[in-house]
Design a protein that fits this description.
By secondary structure, the chain is mostly helical. 46% of the residues lie in helices and 10% in strands. The strands form three sheets. It has a three-stranded antiparallel sheet with strand order 1-2-3. Strands 4-5 form a two-stranded antiparallel ribbon. Strands 6-7 form a two-stranded antiparallel sheet. Helix 3 packs across helix 4, helix 3 packs across helix 5 and helix 4 runs antiparallel to helix 5. The protein is elongated, with a radius of gyration of 25 Å. The two termini are 42 Å apart.
């Protein structure tokens, strides 16, 4: 959501002796009308709205006193803009569905490791996710609260949430998928003659380098360095974990 101009911030209103502002269809109370405390609270509210008008505010909690459903909505709005890979957004939507189903109306600051375990148990009971995915989704819930702390929407003890141990293999109610096996060479060789030349070349490149399908699909002629004296072609894709593992080259 784009930032607002100063004259677009909700104005102070008066209801009897209370000072409040309308924001996102809710009343945000600042305190007793005409008091220095109310003026200061309104200034904080105004600064927060100017900085990020999409952040939620709880009706009776003031700035930062949000519900888990509101935190999840704000995080998803942020993540959709920041994440280029839309599949990650889809995963967070699923995670948020489980989180909000159980604790959507709970105040953010009341979330705890035991409540995280309850959310995880809900995923296990649904029977749709393998153990590894349940562990990944549990970590994603922690990430949502970590972002909330960063944005001063929550005071949740994120370190305590991280103390929740992942489900181990054989945990009651969980299941694991069998390990994936490589496609036999004879299957690739038998398939290549039936593919269009470009698709066949893509399959060969992926087979020889171990690249992901999306990485092969995104290759362009201009991205390939053919200027080396050794006669080899170099291609340097952007890896999603590049900042953790350093430069990754395929040749």
């Amino acid at each position: 959501m784009p930032k607002l101009k100063d004259d677009q911030v909700p104005k102070k209103c008066r209801d009897r002796n209370q000072c409040f502002s309308w924001h996102q269809g809710k009343r945000i109370y600042h305190g007793k009308w005409g008091t220095p405390e109310a003026d200061t609270a309104y200034k904080r509210f105004k600064i927060a709205v100017l900085e990020n008008p999409g952040l939620p505010f709880r009706v009776n909690g003031g700035v930062g006193g949000v519900l888990i459903a509101e935190l999840a909505d704000a995080f998803l709005d942020y993540f959709e803009k920041a994440q280029r890979d839309k599949s990650h957004v889809t995963h967070f939507r699923i995670v948020i569905g489980y989180l909000v189903e159980v604790y959507g109306e709970l105040a953010v600051n009341e979330f705890s490791p035991k409540k995280l375990k309850v959310c995880r148990a809900q995923m296990v009971r649904a029977g749709k996710l393998c153990r590894r995915m349940v562990n990944d989704y549990t970590s994603m819930i922690i990430r949502i609260f970590s972002w909330g702390v960063e944005e001063e929407l929550a005071k949740t003890d994120v370190k305590a949430l991280r103390e929740v141990k992942p489900l181990s293999k054989g945990a009651p109610g969980t299941f694991d998928h069998p390990p994936r096996e490589d496609v036999p060479v004879w299957v690739i060789a038998a398939t290549l003659p039936f593919l269009a030349p470009v698709v066949a070349a893509m399959v060969m490149v992926q087979w020889l380098t171990g690249m992901r399908p999306s990485e092969v699909f995104n290759m362009q002629v201009g991205d390939i360095d053919r200027s080396r004296n050794n006669g080899l072609w170099y291609y340097s894709p952007r890896h999603k974990t590049e900042e953790h593992i350093g430069e990754n080259r395929f040749r």
